[in-house]
User: Fold Glycosyltransferases from Glycine soja.
Amino acid sequence: MRAHRIIERIQREQRMLFGVKKPKMVIAVTPTQVRTFQKLHLSSVMHSLMLVPYDVVWIVVEAGRVTNETASIIAKSGLRTIHVGFNHRMTISWSDRHKLEAMMRLHALRIVRKERLDGIVIFADDSNMHRCSFCWNSCSFRWCG
Assistant:
């Protein structure tokens, strides 16, 4: 809910300062990979995004390639989604994994630029989610754990 309040405040201030009539779209970026608990994690992100009272575009960047497993999960959201593969497989090493996830986020930002999407970009990771409260952390919102 904290992230929703932050987005709401940004929207309100944009309308006041710049005379914005229509709120900006929310562009949520989620790097992911096929794994045992992927459905649980992606479902948590999906349900949070479905509650956002603004237009939402969900960009899901999947390590390796686009898979039917991931596509079937995100299709249930009813959100506008962009599901793309990333040509590198997820690594086992935590430090390498964080670097790969950062590259996947950059890949999503290139898609935002290419598609000329105009909105507020948030990074909604599908891992490290434990609680139903958001934290604002280094330009991303993650579940507090």
